[in-house]
């Protein structure tokens, strides 16, 4: 089944050109199916690109999925037209009494700030708390993963000597865990961050489990509350050229010691095109999350999410 997206969302035409079947609101309303309701809090600066990247992965499922985008009332993005935000994004006050099968909270370009210094920190934590009682499973990405682990468990982030930038090999700690159905023994995922988490601090909390790690990139995926929450420190959703565009952007800003992303360009040569090694992993990650931790876990009556407790 297709994605059910708001009419005229820019991602629709991009995905159709990629032969991805999407369904706009009008047509979806004619099908007698209870779609999964997925809420996306998009904190990335280039929101249209991030929307497309996430929808590309969510579309690769037999389930009908209804997408809604959430914005912040306490922060005004600078890189997305206000008309786009007004047309396709809602605010927290409009949805706080509703329930969702799944939620995705993206990364944000604020990791060099202390969490409390982020101007929307109070609203961010309010949304995280709300998700625990109004969402079946929440998928935190990059900075959002760090933010949620800090808010819920007091786990700190630590600055790296240099930016972790590139595509890195990962291992699965528990191959029987449903999130990794169909995964190879080793797989790749992109990272782009200046800070990291310490595995030993995560392991101090009995409610947290580290599911996947990398010798180079450290903790990649952790979970809590029986799959009600996933914390993903990398960017499996990145399109083939995202790391390249970040590299060019940083060079144009004149940032000191900008190194090309590792294990990304052919022969690690930035004049060569990227070699995409993470596409299959990314698709399996999102399909398994939707299947095992959203679709199979959520009640048919969506208002019964409050009765789930820990899965």
From TrEMBL:
Origin superkingdom: Bacteria
Its EC number is 2.3.1.31
Acyltransferase as a keyword of this entry, yes or no, is yes
Site positions for Important for acyl-CoA specificity, renumbered to this chain?
Answer: 111
What does the record give as the active site? 142 (acyl-thioester intermediate), 235 (proton acceptor), 237
Q: Which residues form the signal peptide?
A: none
Tell where it localizes. Answer: Cytoplasm
Pathway noted in the entry: Amino-acid biosynthesis; L-methionine biosynthesis via de novo pathway; O-acetyl-L-homoserine from L-homoserine: step 1/1
At what residues does the UniProt record annotate the site feature described as Important for substrate specificity?
Answer: 192
Keywords for the protein's UniProt record, in alphabetical order? Acyltransferase, Amino-acid biosynthesis, Cytoplasm, Methionine biosynthesis, Transferase
Gene Ontology biological process terms in this record? L-methionine biosynthetic process from homoserine via O-succinyl-L-homoserine and cystathionine
Q: Which PANTHER family match?
A: HOMOSERINE O-SUCCINYLTRANSFERASE
* Name of the protein in question: Homoserine O-acetyltransferase
Question: What is the scientific name of the source organism?
Answer: Fermentimonas caenicola
Q: What is the lineage of its organism?
A: Bacteria, Pseudomonadati, Bacteroidota, Bacteroidia, Bacteroidales
